[in-house]
Write a structure and sequence with these properties.
Elements: H1 3-22, H2 26-43, E1 51-53, H3 65-73, E2 77-82, E3 91-94, E4 101-103, E5 109-111, E6 121-125, E7 128-130, E8 135-136, H4 142-149, E9 155-159, E10 165-166, E11 180-182, E12 187-191, E13 194-199
Parallel strand pairs: 1-2, 1-6, 6-9, 7-10, 9-11
Antiparallel strand pairs: 2-3, 4-5, 7-8, 11-12, 12-13
């Protein structure tokens, strides 16, 4: 597939997958979010002592802010990506409720003046993902560019839903595969040339990080902070 056909194909897939995701009702999204939180906590207990990058959720993406809250309770530090300029690697700034936010590209909030930190792990939302562990994003190339620029590559954990799976995104040289993929089904590990399903962690065997489920309706409306 030549590059122009690939761009068109990816744009069409992105639009289709986004429409499918937007059609999912809030109750099901919340159920999936709780399952994904549980899979991540049980599979990656080390995140409780790490610097973890998350992304502010948009368009029915997985909402990592609930998990981030629990990770911080165990000593983790959480950061958000910040767009510095077009075609430039992202930087990561510390975020927790109370940090001043501003609206960035696509209306996505970002920390204004908190400290920059290099993440140990990244929870990366995906419009689509494939059997090789490659991610279909929004087409800007920011995360691939950023991961390629970091002196120490963080553990990359792609987070999405089973409905977003593709056989292939037709990866190119600049596409960087993920280390893991987590969906409502469970956890996949990249074992070249593709993903291996590790299954959902056993029920009733939580890690030391596990805690009661945090329901969105039980959190004050301004808990996560506001862009201003």
């Amino acid at each position: 597939m030549d590059i122009q056909k690939l761009k068109l194909w990816r744009r069409e897939q992105r639009q289709r997958l986004l429409a499918d995701r937007l059609a999912v009702d809030a109750t099901r999204l919340e159920s999936w979010r709780q399952s994904i939180d549980t899979h991540i906590e049980r599979t990656f207990p080390g995140l409780g002592k790490a610097t973890v990058a998350i992304c502010w959720p948009i368009r029915n993406e997985y909402d990592a802010r609930h998990l981030a809250r629990r990770l911080r309770e165990h000593g983790a530090r959480t950061v958000l990506p910040v767009v510095v300029a077009p075609a430039t690697p992202l930087v990561f700034r510390e975020w927790h409720p109370g940090v001043k936010l501003a609206d960035g590209a696509m209306g996505i909030p970002y920390p204004v003046d908190s400290a920059e930190m290099a993440p140990d792990a990244v929870l990366l939302p995906m419009n689509g993902w494939d059997a090789g562990g490659y991610r279909l994003g929004y087409g800007g190339g920011f995360f691939d560019r950023t991961l390629a620029s970091l002196a120490k590559k963080p553990v990359t954990i792609g987070v999405s839903y089973e409905l977003a799976r593709l056989e292939t995104i037709h990866p190119q040289l600049w596409d960087i595969p993920l280390d893991y993929v987590v969906t409502e089904r469970g956890v996949y590990r990249r074992d070249p040339p593709g993903l291996v399903f590790l299954a959902a962690p056993p029920a009733g065997e939580p890690s030391a990080l596990a805690s009661p489920v945090c329901y969105a309706g039980e959190i004050a409306p301004d808990y996560f902070g506001k862009a201003s």
